[in-house]
Amino acid sequence: MALDEIKIGGLGASRRRVEDNRFIRGKGNYVDDVVLPGMLHMEILRSPLAHAKIKSIDTSAAYAIPGVRMVMTGEMMAARNLAWMPTLSYDTQAVLATDKVRFQGQEVACVIADDPYIAKDGCEAIVVDYEPLPPIVNPTQAMAADAPLIRDDKIGQDNNVIFDWAVGDREGTDRAFAEADLVSEISMHYPRSHPSPIESCGSLADYDRSTSKLTVYMTTQAPHIVRAAVSLVAEIPEHMIRIISPDLGGGFGNKVPVYPGYVMSILASILLEAPVKWIEDKSGNLISTGFGRDVYLKGQLAVRNDGKILAVRMHTDSDHGAFFADAQPSKFKIGLMHSAFACYDIPSAHLTARGVYTNKSPGGVAYRCSFRVTEAMFFQERMVQAAADDLGMDQAEFRRVNLVKDDDFPKRTPFGFLTDSGQYEKCLQIGLDAIGYDDFKKEKEEAKARGRLLGIGISTMTEPLGAGNSREYDILGIKMFDSAELRVHMTGKAILRTGAKTQGQGHETTWAQIVAHELGIPAEDIVVEEGDTDTAPFGMGTYASRSTPVAGAAVSMVSRKIRAKARKIAAHLLEVSDEDIEWELGRFYVRGAHDRGVTIQDCAMAAYSNVPDGMEPGLENNAYYDPPNLTWPFACYIATVEVDPETGVWDVLRLVAVDDCGVRINPMIVEGQIMGGLTEAYAMANMQFITFDEDGNCVGSNYMDYLLPTAWETPGFELHEVVTPCPHHPIGAKGIGECATVGGPAAFVNAVIDALKGTGVRNIDMPLLPDRVYEALQTGKDISGHPPVKTD
Amino acid sequence: MYPSRFNYEAPTSVEAAIALLTEGDGEAKVLAGGQSLIPMMKLRFASPATLIDINNIPGLDSHGADADGTYRIGALVRHADLEKSTTLPDHLPLIASAAHLVADPIVRTRGTFVGSVCHADPQGDWASCMVALGGSIVAQGPNGKRSVEVKDFVAGPFQTVLAHNEIAIEAVIPAAKGTRAGGYLKLERRVGDFATAGVGLALDMSGSTVNNAGIGLTGVGAQTINAEAAAAALIGSSLEADAVENAARLAAEASNPRSDHRGSADFKRHIIATFVKRLASNVQRAEAQVA
């Protein structure tokens, strides 16, 4: 009999996360838990200033402290050609500053000592003489004619512009705008935020002179990319480098880049011939490592009176900080910003994008999103609401007019992507029905008559998840695909390894479910391992919701290879030809004789004891998967809010989420991903930002200022589901890890703006802090929130 | 987040602690809940040579009312003790309404009321409540005890008039002249955030008439603000609209906020006025319910 797929933990089983067993018992193994004999500790001295020349660094007092083993400065790094390192976007980044510091928190020196307390004492004893320079904290300042040059280290760089980039159909877009009944225009800033995993970054480098082998325990979402990068930067042969990414306390994109601290700990280990551990403190993480967003938009929609959108124009100015260190496919300068409006049927679109240097920390990582998709979808949904309001059309109806219809897939997007599938109107309708759209609109009018401000906001979007394909997607020339390796042991138990790296997504649980689905081996019989480059097959890592679309597909494909071999073994055992063998979950049988069969476990045993003549023994294989397209999940989020007109405080009344991510491998994990994403979306809309004052001081350098919402503030979420299987993924799955973070913020902001309808206010920049909402209500004007923050 | 080297002492009597403080000669700090001191040490904003942990000293962990209505809060009473107290709301509605707004549940479990007042953070909630209630701190030193009103106790941001060898052993709140009423409101961006602005209102009432009033303002100046003129505007009134409006205006005028990432100075002044009005209105509503 075929097995019950849910019972064996296959597709659709809300199986408990196997990794939680160790996490909730405090038995996780994070980088900081790894202790090696003779281990030393490293602390980093950071710049207190945003922009300053370094006149001198005096390390003598630090060396005088007992227990200090070494102090490293930029000069020392430069002597070894390691003062600068390449970024993931074809720029360079200082490992330790030599000439000047370019952002507050930049690495200036590091101390290696017997314990971290002494290392910190050593940092305090270093005397740095700075000559302050004028800081730049936003693109307007950066592009001013008299702006100081931030990157004077770069030959040929004579201003602060990094790139001017364009994509789309300029002429077609111009023509459509000329024919429009209405042009709706809006400007806004998506503020800088930080992925802020609870575990900060860190590394433990262990160079063994006797074997010439470098082992580094590291907080990385992409161990194989790091191995390649370390090999290139440190000139150590790739096979002599072992990167181990143990349990990660969250990543959210923050742990994709290679950071100066990693490089310093590696060099220190080589020079001191001892293991060197560096664990970043929380402020170090917030002020120096990869941030998200910080993009300014000027957006225009050309609209016809019947609601049809004819064309889109977008211009973005993005603030990348002191080094262009965005983690993104190399050929797209502003990530996948041009995935905007992919869920709408719009004939033409044009995007211009300019990126600038500022005296702020570098990064531009994909914070829980597929390379700037968060900004794209936020801008899209804010522009859509503004256009509906400008036109005087109901916001749900305006979306209905423009959403791509079910029969139109695959559909070319306004900027040229190809969406694969979806049921957009159905999702929208489920959301509207769940929230009680028409009733709420009535309630809102009644409340308004009594002086209460209610609002409703909608956000509908599809996003491109699962880069590659490798033709279009690469990072520094490294093509984006993934692999999986499966070994089935003789008793039918198995080990699966992939080049992805779980950091909370639950791969140890869900990958086993895919194998269970393909082979009928119970999920509990499969152990999943990731993160060690000496044992895991090559992969590009886990970020941008790409694991299930790419590595997950490879898991499926390698399982099918195993099944193909097992089929031959089954034919041998059942003494029939291959063509006479049928498969049902967990079992092969003879066509027409259902009771004559062997289980997958029987085949595994035979693979090691009784293979047909000419067949290699064993039951293991690997598979590389280069996806034919990105996967395109769809989401509809609808929020209702009440704004207190006296204080500007707003409360979420309800949030309805309708997500279509294709086939759900583990519904419980998917729901957890959506709730986590919505929480982050709420945080960005309501409270969270990293800003800077006019001196370039980072405001948001600790958890008192950079706010993570607690269970107290976070509203409840009501989840709904639609399933449109992905037509090109082996099990019909689409990415889901980031949909709610991407699509959520616009629902909250649109709701608050809707509550203020009639006051003249069209935009308030996130976060919608009480003072901003109050000021908007008082003045009837848009509120911008970009740095420098107003202080006195 | 590694503090500088420090010595640790854990005396078992107030006298022994005072002797250690005297010995420390200004370089020793008292550790009660440690919810501000320890983070400051980890950030190396504070680097005391010695920590004197008073948690092993008996007799400092109770709170309650004397026969005459005077209320005493010992130096080791945690915020959570006050939050969970079932008798406190009858004695001190202001303290009871503020207790669950202080910081977050983790801090409240360990942090102490008296320690918070001694920390003298202009964004601390308890000093505003104490100022509104006309409360005092009892300090004990080598020469015995003295009592200092909280409005005089706080000398500036993070500064008090405590001598280097004095320990604040309890907070004292005088008995009410009538029925106690009032409450605390604070605007914060998130649980555990410092106040964007906060107001503590303490009223002693006879029926609907205000016998005595105090208003303390949080987070809108370089130190806790005692809005005396605003409070005086309420005395003798029955919280009529004119009187409340006047008090709200005077409270906003008494505040001296700065524009920062929590909001503009004007916004914070507006919140102060709004909260004074809301607190007065809450008192009236409660009165109406009793009547």
Comma- or semicolon-separated keywords:
heterodimer, A: alpha+beta, Aldehyde Oxidoreductase, domain 4, 3 domains, 7-stranded mixed sheet, 19 helices, 34 strands, about 30% helix, about 25% strand, B: about 290 residues, Uridine Diphospho-n-acetylenolpyruvylglucosamine Reductase, domain 2, Uridine Diphospho-n-acetylenolpyruvylglucosamine Reductase, domain 3, 5-stranded antiparallel sheet, 4-stranded antiparallel sheet, 14 strands, about 35% helix
CATH architecture of the largest domain in chain B: 2-Layer Sandwich
CATH superfamily of the largest domain in chain A: Aldehyde oxidase/xanthine dehydrogenase, molybdopterin binding domain
Number of strands of chain B: 14
Give the N-to-C terminal Cα separation of chain A: 76 Å
Side by side, the strands of the main sheet of chain A go 3-7-1-14-11-12-13
Number of domains of chain B: 3
Number of helices of chain B: 12
Q: Main beta sheet of chain B: strand number and arrangement?
A: 5 strands, antiparallel
Main β-sheet of chain A, in a few words?
A: 7 strands, mixed
Q: In order across it, which strands form the biggest sheet of chain B?
A: 4-5-10-6-7
CATH class of the largest domain in chain A: Alpha Beta
* Approximate strand percentage of chain A: 15-25%
Per the CATH scheme, the topology name of the largest domain in chain B is Enolase-like, domain 1
What fraction, in percent, of the residue positions of chain A are helical? 25-40%
